[in-house]
Amino acid sequence: MGAQRYPLAGVTVVSLEQAVAAPYATRQLADLGARVIKVERPGEGDFARRYDTTVHGHSSYFVWLNRSKESLTLDLKDPRGLEILRRLLDDADVFVHNLAPGAVDRLGLGTAEVTRHRPRLITCTVSGYGTTGPWADRKAYDLLVQCQTGLVSLTGTGEETARTGISVADIAAGMYAYSGVLTALYTRATTGEAHPVEVSLFEALAEWMGQPAYYTRYGGTQPPRLGTQHATIAPYGTFRAADGREVLFSIQNEREWSVLCAGFLGRPELTDDPRFATGSDRVAHREELNALVAERCARSGADDLLKELESLGIACAGVNDVAAFLDHPVLAARDRWREVAVPGATVEALLPPADLAGTATRMDPVPEVGSHTEAILTGLGHSAESIARLRADGVV
Questions:
Q1: 312 and 182 fall within a common domain
Q2: Are residues 54 and 182 in the same domain?
Q3: What is the pLDDT of residues 32-65, one digit of tens each?
Q4: What is the pTM of this model?
């Protein structure tokens, strides 16, 4: 993009991060042009580097979450490594971390300590269950939080629960950490005050559980597990076509219900059938309704069903697998793919979903472990001899 300026150019983020939540937050800051210095363990680095080896020998998680960052290796148990980190924080705008409970405080890098002489530094703590309260010392992984918030109890079928197929608790926390840091940067720019940010996986996913929480508290029972069906809307879900493929559609209001009855089911009299007259009636008689819809869908192939539903103005879709998603015509037509370098190869990566008109999107390489260590240390004033000694001693 030539000399075009990134929205967060000039912002420096130092991150003690691993796994998904914090790396997702900082990658989005890097996408906007922030300089993100990722501090990793010497040798092994972020353990997410070893989750799998499917992307040209690299972890699919790591490649997704760590483009456009600088990797600095430091042994923070060595006072020299800790001192290097403190010097980086002197000039940083944001300090993000999601280490195990208590780890940052034991290093003397808690919010009170690091901001005492750095009043403009914004700290962002990503924890499992919060830094206070009875579960502050518990480790929290994504699926544990899915279980604790009740999400797993909602996902699956009537016979069996299921985890959500992506790291939804980590992603939720990463999104709130990202938006929290942006808010703190804006507040600092407008008021001069730097406010610490704290996000927990549990509370992030708890927010996303808002609708079923209200449904349960005030309805007396929680929404049932219905696979692709919807607890409060019917018909809503997948139905099998004559060719064995699945088609999903949803009826959201009375106008759509009337159109479905007359134009798709060929049964206009069902519009005023007392069993189906309102949304609540249709949910109460879901099995009878689904049987009518299933019988109609079984008479046509999936492509024909989709064309007919679309012609009637009813929202519908085929059920893609991941391979079909990768080849989706919307992504191709809207030019959403970009090449990103990984060590030894390149990969296709999606542009960030928020387009800021007139600004550049940064899509720089995914770093090797410690690939920026020498440059960062040189920038801090270390000589080649000093860096060599630190390497020999395993500090970097």
A1: no
A2: yes
A3: 999 999 999 999 999 999 999 999 999 999 999 9
A4: 0.92
Element (H, E) at 273: none
Residues 373, 378: Cα–Cα separation, whole Å:
8
| Cis status of the peptide bond prior to 268, with omega within 30 of 0 | no
Say which residue the tokens 């808690």 belong to. 110
Q: Which domain holds residue 368?
A: 12-208+330-392
Distance CA 396, CA 392 (A): 8
125: part of which helix (H) or strand (E)? strand 122-127
Is there a catalytic annotation at residue 117? Answer: no
Residue 50: give its domain's CATH number. 3.40.50.10540
Instruction: Concatenate the DSSP letters of all residues of 200-221 into one string.
Output: EHHHHHHHHTHHHHHHHHHHSS
Domain boundary among the residues 287, 319, 351 is at 319
Q: In the prediction, which pLDDT does 360 show?
A: 84
345 and 304 share one domain: no
Of all helices (H) and strands (E), which one includes residue 12?
A: strand 12-16
- Catalytic one among 97, 195, 230, 285? 230
- Which two three-digit tokens encode residue 390? 């630190």
CA 280 to chain centroid: 33
Q: Do the beta carbons of residue 231 and residue 215 sit within 8 Å?
A: yes
Q: How many domains does the chain have?
A: 2
